[in-house]
Request: fold
Amino acid sequence: MRKIRILIAKPGLDGHDRGALVIAQAMRDHGMEVIYTGLRQSPVQIATAAVQEDVDVVGLSSLSGAHNTLFPKVLEELEKRNAGDIPVIGGGVIPNEDIPFLLEKGIKRIFTSGSPTEEMAIYLKQLLRPEETPIPPKQIAHLGIAVKKIEEVLPFYTNAIGLEVEAIEEVESEGVKIAFLKVGETRIELLEPLHEQSPINSFLAQRGEGVHHIAFEVEDLTSRLSKLKEKGVRLINEESKQGANNSQIAFIHPKEAHGVLVELCEHPEGSED
Ligand code: ZN
Reply:
């Protein structure tokens, strides 16, 4: 897969390109190939360069205040060269009230001067290499905490912290008893071993009581697992399995996260309250 090629261009007359150069370097640091046109380029020059350089995306930077004219003009010139499918993003000094107009004209996204370059890099990877970039998990579904006896630790979470017990469930297949404590849309799960062979029991023996795993709520568990496998990420569960609350879950090997056991879980639509 070739690197993402981005043309960074400064249309118009303003003579400052520090910001554009910072963006250019940041995108290089994110593994992209950056072509920088230099200052004071006309929309014609920019569109021509985009086509000649066969870029995946054009990033326009403007500080001059002429973005409402110049950005759409670049789109027009791309269109004339049958390159209207090259996405164009913009940045620089763009007042918030101009953003809807620019999006309406066909600019994909505007990054105002305060946005971190990281945000732009992630956006571009998701836009241009969606098959390589996982969708961010919706939230932390729960934190799993290994305990010897739920009843011994529960008063801390209820009386000292003020959480309420949502349910207590025994999952025979995992050899574990779980207390669910709701915190907003996230949960604390207290995990108590049901017997000697329980994985929680071996965790307690090796590391003692404490945080056992972190679970991310995702929407695409099956395809995510196959992508992780392709990337060589070590999985404990290559296929998803039934978890608590009608969820599907899978664990990633703790070596991947340097000692943290990571769970991915997916709740079918509407099963969450
Ligand atoms: Zn879990």
